[in-house]
Amino acid sequence: MSAIPPSTWYVDFFTELPNEFWRRAVPPEVTVEEIDFVEQRLGLAPRSLILDVPCGSGRHSVELARRGHRVTGVDLSAEAIGHARRAAAGLDVEFVRADMREIPWGKGFDAVLCLGNSFGYLELEGLREFAAALGGAVRPGGGLVVDFGSAAESVLPGYRAEPRAMRTGDITVLATSEYDVAGSRVFSRYRFTRGEEQLDVTAIHHVYTVAQIVDLLSGHGFTDVELFGGPGGEPYGIGSGRLLLVARRKS
């Protein structure tokens, strides 16, 4: 196995080149479909107070604000927060640079969103802290949506570590992965190239079972859990490419 990256890999990973690649890679209609799912499944009222964490470059926060919601986006990447603020000019949205666990407790958000597979960035103890923060941020009866691509039921069936090459505009990416059995985690190694610029970085995605996730969230007040395999509302099952979990904070 190659060198193991630090557990805090996400502190330095999300600089301009990786962020710009993913900004280009996601078509606008995907964001619209995902926010349609959030609004419909949570039954959001007009002008709902919503927390988007981590918000990345703000694509979900901006779409929510365009629809009239009041949004707070939290992310650790200074570059991503800067881009989000520029994209949201004139909209009712606030962007805060902070760790995903350092979110505003007691503010009574109507909904909290954790989208884009970031739920698996943290080791188990850190994830417990994040779940506690989520429970403290959303009001009783408020909603939660978690988008997670590293559930064990998604990752492990037929797992194969094959290199992938991706391109968007003048940015190319070579991605490889290794599954660490002892740590139940995937090391995703990326080489980003743009002209003469080249960046080698590694992400860690911790793999948790659906039962672990549900138990963790229920321990911090979330009930009525529903599991979906995509924003179209299809049921989640073995081999689904992603998990969309919807829950309510108990009253």
Task: Provide keyphrases for this structure.
single chain; 251 residues; alpha/beta; Rossmann fold; N-terminal domain of TfIIb; seven-stranded mixed sheet; four-stranded antiparallel sheet; 8 helices; 11 strands; 29% helix; 32% strand; transferase
Characterise this structure.
The protein is α/β, with parallel strands linked by helices and 251 residues long. It folds into two domains: 181 residues, Vaccinia Virus protein VP39 (Rossmann fold); 50 residues, N-terminal domain of TfIIb (Single Sheet), CATH 2.20.25. It contains eight helices and eleven strands. α3 packs across α4. The longest helix is centred in the first third of the chain and has 15 residues. 37% of the residues are buried. GO terms for molecular function: methyltransferase activity. Pfam families: Methyltransf_25. This is Methyltransferase family protein. InterPro entries: Methyltransf_25 (IPR041698), SAM-dependent_MTases_sf (IPR029063).
How far the N terminus sits from the C terminus, by CA atoms, comes to 47 Å
Largest sheet: 7 strands, mixed
Question: What does the overall shape look like?
Answer: globular
Strand content: 25-35%
Oligomer: single chain
Helix count from the secondary structure assignment: 8
Number of strands: 11
Main β-sheet, spatial strand arrangement: 3-2-1-4-5-11-10
CATH homologous superfamily heading of the largest domain: Vaccinia Virus protein VP39
**SS-based class:** alpha/beta
The portion of residues assigned to helices is 25-40%
Uncertain runs with pLDDT below 50, 5 residues or more?
none
Secondary-structure element series: HHHEHEHEEHEHEEEEHEE
CATH class of the largest domain: Alpha Beta
Computed CA radius of gyration, to the nearest angstrom: 17 Å
